[in-house]
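Hi everyone,

Forwarding the result from last night's run.
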Amino acid sequence: MALRATDQFMREYMQALAVFTAELERTDPRDEAVFKPTLRLALEKIGMTATSLAERVGHSKGTISKWINTDAMPSQSTREVVMKWILSQAKQQLEDLETTRKKVAA
């Protein structure tokens, strides 16, 4: 029973992550209106870390926090890098979850 519940949870999470990924693929990374909500969702709900993002884009964790919590906004080129990073991380997470789900099911 617990295995079935775990599999169901994993499938539902993967479905939500796939929807997020599909939406992100259709998002214009230059669109300032979607940057903060997307970044917040990626960091709070999908398990990506501000530290790994900071390392990727060459900014401090404090700067990432400012992007989320204040009116501060990175340059367009940095937003594009951030959005591409989030997309790549979401896709990798989907692949990893699918691999894990198949191993558990076997």
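The chain has a mean pLDDT of 87.

Cheers,
N.
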